Amino acid sequence: MLSQIIVSPAPHTSQNLTTRRLMADVIIGLVPAVVAAGILFRLRAPALIGICVGVCLLSEWVCNLLRRKPNSLGDLSAAVTGLILALSLPPAVPLSVAAIGSVFAIVIVKMWWAPSSPSSSPSTSTADWEAMCSIRPWRHAPF
Predict the structure, then answer these.
(1) Where in the chain are the domains?
(2) Alpha-carbon distances of 59 from 43, 82, 92, 137, rounded to whole Å
(3) Which of 34, 53, 107, 143 is close enough to 82 for a disulfide, judged by CB 3.0 to 4.6 Å?
(4) What letter would DSSP give residue 92?
């Protein structure tokens, strides 16, 4: 009876999933959080999300261009990084700090540190930590 049990590592999926499909599922899963952020923080949320996602996409495109690597924007990982970063930052953060955190997440963590790491790196968490350290004086800004 024990010979019929199949032991395999997670994730236990029965279909072929691509990185693009997984990232699209993450974006779909974050839609309620994006809607809630828009309701709670009005125009500040779309501005923060737009800056973070846009700068992440631009940073990845520029890095791939400079490194002469194929364009990897199609896998949506940079968009997910920007979206999660924007949702984890406080709404009062200056947009320049959000842009710097986005560049840091892609250029330093994803493109430079992650390829040399045997495991996947938490680029969003690292960029969030970097942004939180840099915005300490502005944490309670009135805008």
Answers:
(1) 18-136
(2) 24, 11, 23, 26
(3) 53
(4) T
User: In the chain, which ranges are E strands?
Assistant: none
**pLDDT at position 119 over 50:** no
Sign, Cα dihedral of 141, 37, 82, 116: positive
DSSP structural state of residue 15: S
Residue carrying structure tokens 């430079």: 112
Rounded to the nearest 10°, the torsion over CA 94, 46, 82, 21 is 170
What lies within 8 Å, CB to CB, of 78 at 6+ separation is 53, 56, 57, 59, 60, 72, 106, 110
pLDDT digits (tens, 9 = 90+) for 49-101: 999 999 999 999 999 999 898 888 998 989 999 999 999 898 989 999 999 98
